[in-house]
Amino acid sequence: MNTQGAAEPLPTAVYTDRMARARAQMEDKDIDLLLLSLGLDLPYISGYNAMPLERLTMLVVPRNGEARLVIPRMEAPRVRPQPGVFEMRPWGELENPVEIVAELAKKAGTIDNVAVGDQMWARFLVELLPLLPDAHFSRADVVTSMRMTKDAAEIAALRAAGAAVDRIAAQLQAGEIDLVGRTEAEVSADLSARIVAEGHQVMNFAIVAAGENAASPHHHPGDRVIAKGEILLCDFGGTMNGYCSDITRCVYLGTPPAEIADAYAVLHEAQHAAVVAGTVGTPCEEVDRAARRIITDAGYGEFFFHRTGHGIGMDAHEDPYMVEGNSLPLAAGHAFSVEPGIYLDGRWGMRLEDIVVATADGPVAMNTANHDLVALDV
Amino acid sequence: MNTQGAAEPLPTAVYTDRMARARAQMEDKDIDLLLLSLGLDLPYISGYNAMPLERLTMLVVPRNGEARLVIPRMEAPRVRPQPGVFEMRPWGELENPVEIVAELAKKAGTIDNVAVGDQMWARFLVELLPLLPDAHFSRADVVTSMRMTKDAAEIAALRAAGAAVDRIAAQLQAGEIDLVGRTEAEVSADLSARIVAEGHQVMNFAIVAAGENAASPHHHPGDRVIAKGEILLCDFGGTMNGYCSDITRCVYLGTPPAEIADAYAVLHEAQHAAVVAGTVGTPCEEVDRAARRIITDAGYGEFFFHRTGHGIGMDAHEDPYMVEGNSLPLAAGHAFSVEPGIYLDGRWGMRLEDIVVATADGPVAMNTANHDLVALDV
Question: What ipTM describes this predicted complex?
Fold first, then answer.
């Protein structure tokens, strides 16, 4: 199964510490029970990544009781034991794992507030609701909020993944990747192969959008043939040793016309302004505003219709989000994308993206590939 | 993003028909509202596959009202319109999409029973619960039950994917894949590349388990080096044009000792018996029993501790399951794996798996690769 580029488990002491901090948050937030299944909160706190299948794997953490990993018996040998962090509760094919979870919950005492992992499958929650009829369910911002702040090892992993996609961006900008005459899908497959070749265990995405298709920010690469005299937007990333990369660069196939060169100059300035705005203590929405102000002042405001960025770490998208309305102040160790864009429907689009980490010494970019709209001689 | 090997959308008439059948099921099952997000129910009924990200995509189907696809504005251009099947409700970055879903639900009238897709992220359901406080939530066995019965085009897709992994199994059995001296992880990567090379768009899994590791049915391939004089279990599959393959074959690196040869003969007989048991009208549990009886009679019953099989189609695992307690009778078009195994903890393991489709003319295997324990001359 795709285990999302999970790294090997870390020493038990790391998980002991993380579990203790999660329990402290449960205390602060008055959460009686934490339930984690699919998603990366589980490996963050336990070192184990659940298989994305119909057999339930769920870590059951009562505020004042021992954590139990409810896991299919046939998958139990996959788990590296973490003594003092959790015990195992393997279940057989003829047992009902949701009932096991409910029984473990009830044994732990009164359960008023249950926090569930974001990416747990709804089928398990739907089956749990009638078994804990008096409980109030909420999102598990216990572990997700811990994951926002990266430690030195995590930043090093983001840096290594960033350097890998920087190398691919350099190949793109040096004209080493054939573009004209190939389809978007072919170039996407080529980028995907390079993502793995450069050291990622998993390819997450490789958007390739030519000309008018670049006006669709999440364009799905198709059989559109790439031609001379147009812009090509490439947004790609993967997971390396458990941490994600994500970069966007555009190239022009020939000499860009003034309209596109001018717009790109605005985009470049806006992206740089948002990167340098990413200092500790700055509210996330100010990072968004820094880019948006410049794009709006240049008259392109209506053509930049998405937020400026998203947090990144074990997940390609995670907290914190650089979006209007998010007043959370950046802290040292927050990692996020800065990726404004300008999109003219039916004509062309452009985006420029780096990953940035807020540090005590100011924002540090994980990507340093050339930020210009490189004109390729095709 | 990984769109799970989604095929191109089919003609609109296919989705018009599927939506009509889903609505008829909603009527039968007294479901007022169907909500589909991540997972393959959505593309089955609409042709569109949601991106697995934090921006909500959700198809809202009121029993007596128009279906609406709530989708991030920036992803709306990805959707191929299906007139008469659904309308779009794009949402902007500063809107709350869960509130939009709740408003659409309330506009449709009284909402008592809500069916939600199995793989929807729990975060969205948790946010929806307080907005529809009087509703009862259940699993959406509306579309999942429709998906069980494959039509001719779907069976053709399963056959093509099956033929692709059969070719890889033949390469394995012919000794064309280097094994001895490589790690499980290296062979897994090799199989993964072949899965794509043989025509799948997505590699789903490639379990490679040597010797004692083969006793762990879902073993995660690691740095264990494969050696002469041991069994090697390979279980692999991918998604081709929207439909999944899944095959398991074991080879022996050298001449198998009598103990392993004898056990394999039992396994082979058990697997064959379960395949031929898969006739229309037979309860699913009888397929399980057909294999289990033979393995148990030979004295290996305690070493076969998982169900005999799972349904397969757009998902690698889906209804119906070949497991004790499932009395559902097989119908023409049901597709499922038949994969008994024998696992001796700490020593060795073996499994033999084909995909089978129940038809009016009897069970038809999608895999025909050699079923023997091929002894490789290493």
Answer: 0.93
